Amino acid sequence: MSRIGKKPIQIPAKVKVEVKGSEVKVTGPLGNLSYTMPEGIEAKLENNVLNLAIKDASRERELNALYGTARARIANLVLGVETPFVKVLEVNGLGYKAVVQGNKLNLELGFSHPVIIDIPQGITVVADVKTPSVQIKGMDKVLVGDFAAKIRKLRIPEPYKGSGIKYQGEHIVRKAGKAAATGGAK
Fold first, then answer.
1. Which residue in 7, 64, 65, 114 has a CA-CA distance of 20 to 30 Å to 173?
2. CA-to-CA distance for 37 and 49, rounded, in angstroms?
3. Nearest 5 degrees, angle CA 22-CA 121-CA 37?
């Protein structure tokens, strides 16, 4: 049985949770989000504490993996409607830059053309030209993480010069170049 799934979810005072069948709706100061639980898992709300349980004991082995995931997703919804989730990407490279234009993110990453990405609904993107970085902020942790991963995938940091897009605080293992490996030019 999942240990994470057994943990109760404490509901803060500013957040309201409503359970209707398999759907959990969470409303807070930043907005509202909903999550449909997998079939066979139920939620019970008592005294501002939300508990999840597996309904069907015969399918416990199958539902065990989904049990912890469902609990984590709902806990992230409760956190997200109160304080937004933030991912910061650093853009490193000669001539690399990011600019937000309306609801599109314009990236220049050393290609022959700029890469233009539509910003999904519910996400705020701020591009800082001075540091070159991109800050992604939103209520839904999954949406923020997926969008950040989509941007990072455009130019994964390379190990020699370190140019590319990386998460803030991410450590890139650097390799020595050919000159350092052979002992230098003669």
1. 114
2. 17
3. 10
Instruction: Give the side-chain half-sphere CA count within 13 A for 85.
Output: 21
Between residues 106 and 177, the one the model is more confident about:
106
Tell me: do 156 and 130 sit in the same domain: yes
- Show the domain range for 150: 85-167
Last residue within a domain, chosen from 20, 50, 80? 80
Q: pLDDT at position 167, please?
A: 96
Predicted confidence (pLDDT) per residue in 43-52, tens digit: 999 999 999 9
**Residue 172 resides in a domain:** no
Distances in Å between the alpha carbon of 135 and those of 108, 158, 182? 16, 21, 41
Give 96-132 pLDDT, tens digit per residue.
Answer: 999 999 999 999 999 999 999 999 999 999 999 888 9
